[in-house]
Amino acid sequence: MSARLDAQFAFLMEADKLKQVIRATTLADGSRRENSGEHSWHLALYALVLADHAGPGVTIDRVVKMLLLHDLVEIDVGDVPIHSANGEAHGSAEVAAAEARAADRIFGLLPADLGTELRALWEEFEAAVTPDAIFAKSLDRVQPVLHNLASGGGSWTEYEVTFEQLEARVGAKVARGAPSIWTYVRARLQAFFPDLS
């Protein structure tokens, strides 16, 4: 039992480092950039509150688990914002390989049974083919949009983000997992970008 607890607490102490990973997105009030630990917690809350917008077959407790785990690899890899100058790297084979190595290391800290279980949830989120993962991915994409809207543009100003980029990089993923949420958010984006016809 002591060895199992040693491994579990080693993982939990390692996970604390996620609070040191600074993201491109600011807090909703624009006062500072959020960290990845805050982002993961906020997304878990999104899943609980927005569960009624999930599609058929979605199990919210699994979505919450995925969202709590999804960015742990950033402890090693860091945040790769989709709108930054390095945004092309987001989702690249190079970043995916680095994240897989990070997942090996981080989930490998756990006892084998638990590490395998949590790693499988992380992989499911990354693949985004199950209803749970599709909904989780949609929330992961929409939360930064709402922060940027609330802060008057936030990191969009810094990265010169356009409505078209948001539709291409965010809209399709959100609409796939939460169409009613995308309809709502898209209307707010159209109001934010008044030059749209």
UniProtKB/TrEMBL annotation:
Entry superkingdom: Bacteria
Family annotation (InterPro entries): HD_domain, YfbR/HDDC2
Pfam families in alphabetical order: HD_3
Keywords: Hydrolase, Metal-binding
SUPFAM superfamilies: HD-domain/PDEase-like
Domain HD, chain residue ranges per copy: 15-182
The protein's name: HD domain-containing protein
High-level lineage: Bacteria, Pseudomonadati, Pseudomonadota, Alphaproteobacteria, Rhodobacterales
